Amino acid sequence: MSEEGTITTKEMYDLLIGFASLNEMNRKILLCLAHIYPRAVSGVQLTRLIGYSGKAKSLYRGVLQRLTEENLILRDKLTSKLHSLRINHLHPIAKTLIAMAAKHGQQLREMYENVLRTDENG
After folding, report:
1. Which tens digit of pLDDT belongs to each residue from 79-106?
2. How far apart are CA 117 and CA 120, in angstroms?
3. Phi, psi at 93, each rounded to 5°
4. Which residues contact 60 (CB under 8 A, 6 or more apart)?
5. pLDDT of 52
6. For position 118, what pLDDT does the model report?
């Protein structure tokens, strides 16, 4: 980003090209995590946020593994079954997405936060 904190044309182009290479679920995950940044969520919370079946083990097997390998997300293993997931704020594409979400995504952020509050309150 430029010194003024604005997103450059090159950063926007890199983001678009990066997003074009991802499938729909990967895009949903990154958009979600960018909007709730710096918050981390569990796998179960993430599946609820993106509207995916909470019992979908494939999320851990393939999708999250790929995003982790590409350094787009960070996975902290809290227990053998519980992982903390967050977007990697140091990755250039993720950094641009976080900046855009912070500047223009308040409504979507509020929607995600409401889902998380509902999840926490049972």
Report:
1. 877 889 999 999 999 999 999 999 999 9
2. 5
3. -70, -45
4. 43, 83
5. 78
6. 85
The domain segmentation of the chain, as residue ranges, is: 9-121
- Tokens for 74, please give them: 């960070």
Counting as low any pLDDT under 50, the low residues of the chain are: none
Cα–chain-centroid distance for residue 69? Answer: 14
Contact 108, 35 (CB under 8 A): yes
As a three-state string, the secondary structure of the chain is CCCCCCCCHHHHHHHHHHHHCCCHHHHHHHHHHHHHCCCCEEHHHHHHHCCCCCCCCHHHHHHHHHHHHCCCEEEEECCCCCEEEEECCCCHHHHHHHHHHHHHCHHHHHHHHHHHHHHHHC
CATH architecture of 9-121: Orthogonal Bundle (1.10)
